[in-house]
Specification:
Helices cover 32% and strands 12% of the residues. It starts with a helix and ends in a 17-residue tail after the last strand. The chain is built from four helices and three strands.
Amino acid sequence: ISTVNLDGETNLKERRASDLLTGFMEHSGLEPRKSKDLDLENSVQTLAAKNASKIIEQGLVCQLDEPKVVLTDMGGKVSLASPTEDVAQLLEELKVDIPCYISHENFVPRGCILRNTQWV
């Protein structure tokens, strides 16, 4: 992400999904298709929509700390309110802690510009 609008720094900062979401997405069985008939952009958009739908079905709960002046002073946790049995088993196999604690590395502040990112 580019945070030049917020802190004046021109270098790009890397952000990543929480362990809970990363584990869920990597093992959801959904991957972009590499077909000549379906271009990659449509495939990525379809994948994003399917993964978002699956996460909503599981009851994603995000609890964030109160906003602070310093951008890196951010924390919170994410969990699933009603995970299905197979998702709960998957997260246990991946040794993902529930609730999964998050920090500024998992957060994209308002006013940032996404660079080199297919979807969020």
